[in-house]
Write a structure and sequence with these properties.
The chain has 428 residues and is an alpha/beta fold. It has 14 helices and eleven strands. The protein has a single domain, classed as Luciferase-like domain (TIM Barrel, Alpha-Beta Barrel), CATH 3.20.20. The strands form two sheets. The chain has an eight-stranded parallel barrel with strand order 1-2-3-4-7-8-9-11, surrounded by eight helices. The chain has a two-stranded antiparallel sheet with strand order 5-6. Helix 4 crosses helix 5 and helix 9 packs across helix 11.
Length: 428
């Protein structure tokens, strides 16, 4: 088949824009299960590959509303699995603040519940604010990635401790399990000691899909070795092409092909009937931004108190922080390249927390996504609607049909599992 796009929905109940909940008709909570079920079903109607949920492990009233007040991701996705039939279900569990056995078990369970649609976003957990909630110190960047690398290997090993045909349930012989088809992992490493096996059979996908979002060098190495889908933070075509090529170039070193990993940049589309209407919609959203909340998000992304700098001055000489490497690097590169003021960066961060904002008519948005896809800047996109459900409906009803008419995106699901949607073989 010709190469086709993959689409993920970055699910935030109040939308990706920090003030999206204030838009007329927008959802105002990430705790409204009925609204979230409707959003999931809308994305499935649009034939999206997957729904993706990030996570936050602390509450800050100044942060994005959907990170301060939210459902725990796996609990929510188990509910959404019962209300959908095809769309993939991806959730974040941070390797710094959890354990491999529990993570492996949880995602194997979600894969069984959803009949093969589970995906784990394996991130290190960049926010030091989470540490006091777990009674520990936040590790530095290098240590976080060393922990993550071993953690992912343990999880994948636990998923493989059961053979596919280990469950016999033979009424005639009385034999329930084939004991020789269930193995202990017996992992003893620098950070984890895990015996295994899990107390759940092998997942329908063999292994649930692994998502990754690390933009630093260790993050890219981990993604190239273990990930099936990589989320990218980019701001322009050239930067996206360079990141895309760099990751794909790493894959042969791990015995993998370019098609084994899908790269999905995050994009917040703001769509109108015309380009002008779309820009007016973005201006309306920006008019809702509370200065203190936007500044708090900017400070969090850059790892320093940004209130000490003039918003109308030049970009200060900031080091890349030990936390959000890819976000901060993308924003600093764009700011210096385009001679932006700090206020420009502030506005971009407030709009989409550092992600790419694409504003225009459905035709303009589709044209741009097609360009990026055909110019090998992306294998698809992680769509981050500014507000819900209107922003998602604009994309599903406006942009998706254009992509389908152009043969760039599926018109119906061909398979039942997320692995099939992504065109990936089931691991032995």
């Amino acid at each position: 088949m010709p190469r086709q796009m993959h689409l993920g929905l970055f699910l935030l109940g109040t939308g990706s824009h920090v003030a999206g909940w204030r838009y007329p008709g927008a959802n105002t909570s990430f705790q409204d299960i009925d609204a979230l079920v409707s959003m999931a079903q809308l994305a499935e109607r649009g034939c999206f590959d997957l729904i993706f949920m990030g996570d936050n492990l602390y509450a800050d009233p100044a942060a994005h509303p959907s990170y301060t007040l939210r459902f725990e991701p796996l609990t929510l996705l188990a509910a959404l699995a019962m209300a959908t039939t095809r769309i993939g279900l991806g959730a974040t569990i941070a390797t710094t603040y959890s354990d491999p056995w529990t993570t492996a078990r949880a995602f194997a369970s979600l894969d069984h519940i959803s009949k093969g649609r589970a995906a784990w976003n394996a991130v290190t957990g960049a926010s030091p604010q989470a540490a006091p909630n777990f009674g520990r110190q936040h590790p530095n960047h290098a240590e976080r990635y060393a922990i993550a690398a071993e953690y992912v290997d343990v999880v994948r090993g636990l998923w493989d401790c059961w053979d596919d045909d280990a469950l016999l349930a033979d009424r005639n012989t009385g034999q329930y399990l084939a004991a020789d088809k269930i193995r202990a992992l017996n992992h003893n490493g620098a950070h984890f000691s895990v015996q295994g096996p899990l107390n759940i059979g092998r997942a329908p996908q063999g292994r649930p899909i692994i998502l990754q979002a690390g933009g630093s060098a260790p993050g890219q190495q981990l993604a190239a070795r273990t990930a099936d889908v990589v989320f990218a933070v980019v701001q322009d075509l050239g930067e996206a092409q360079a990141q895309y090529a760099a990751l794909k170039a790493l894959l042969p070193g791990f015995g993998r092909a370019a098609t084994d990993v899908a790269v999905l940049p995050g994009v917040m589309p703001v769509i109108g009937r015309t380009d002008r209407e779309a820009f007016d919609k973005l201006a309306t959203l920006q008019g809702y931004v509370d200065a203190s909340n936007a500044l708090a998000i900017l400070s969090d992304r850059f790892g320093v108190d940004m209130a000490r700098y003039s918003l109308d001055g030049p970009i200060p000489d900031l080091p890349v922080p030990d936390t959000y490497h890819s976000f901060s690097q993308a924003m600093l590169n764009k700011a210096r390249r385009e001679n932006m003021s700090l206020r420009d960066v502030y506005n971009l961060t407030a709009a989409a927390r550092g992600h790419w904002v694409l504003c225009g008519s459905a035709e303009t948005v589709a044209d741009t996504l097609q360009l990026w896809f055909e110019q090998h800047a992306a294998d698809g996109f992680n769509v981050m609607p500014s507000h819900m459900p209107g922003g998602l409906a604009d994309f599903v009803d406006g942009v998706v049909p254009i992509l389908q008419r152009r043969g760039l995106f599926r018109s119906a699901y061909a398979g039942a599992t997320l692995r099939e949607h992504l065109g990936l073989a089931r691991p032995v």
